[in-house]
Specification:
alpha+beta, Alpha-D-Glucose-1,6-Bisphosphate, Chain A, domain 4, 25% helix, 38% strand
Length: 151
């Protein structure tokens, strides 16, 4: 069983509340996701603030332009501190994503920790080495630039 973690930190020169208001609104996720991912929220009537137990469904093309359904549940929320999303349906065997923010002297430190397990055992481990981890780095590189542009 291959299990991995990906961690990214980013300093943003605005107050925690401003970062929280942006990242806790599910509709903003498309704005910080690369266009080639074909990211679209398919859930109806999504509120502008996430909450524990919230289920969000998406269509996304993570590989070769093939659309797949991804369903996540927001399992934990602490206002202006963190939230956690976990995959319920999607391309990974396990996906657990912690989004944490904290105040700093110059603004906000945002930390993402993604714990994941690709499907298909040994083949998933090989896929992670060849392209999954690189794709995650690429997506978070895009997200870093997008957040710098937004803030």
């Amino acid at each position: 069983m291959s299990f991995y973690q990906f961690k990214r930190t980013q300093s943003i020169d605005v107050p925690v509340e401003k970062v929280w208001n942006f990242i806790s609104d599910p509709s903003n996720l498309k704005e910080i996701t690369p266009d080639y991912m074909g990211f679209d929220i398919t859930s109806k009537d999504i509120p502008s603030k996430m909450y524990e137990g919230m289920i969000i469904s998406y269509k996304v093309s993570p590989l070769l332009g093939i659309k797949t359904t991804w369903v996540t549940e927001i399992t934990h929320v602490k206002e202006n501190k963190y939230f956690v999303d976990e995959q319920r349906v999607g391309p990974y065997k396990i996906w657990h994503h912690q989004h944490m923010i904290e105040a700093t002297a110059t603004g906000t430190l945002m930390t993402d920790i993604v714990s994941y397990q690709p499907p298909f055992g040994v083949l998933g481990a090989i896929a992670n080495k060849l392209f999954i981890r690189k794709k995650l780095q690429e997506i978070f590189d895009y997200r870093t630039k997008a957040l710098e542009r937004i803030f």
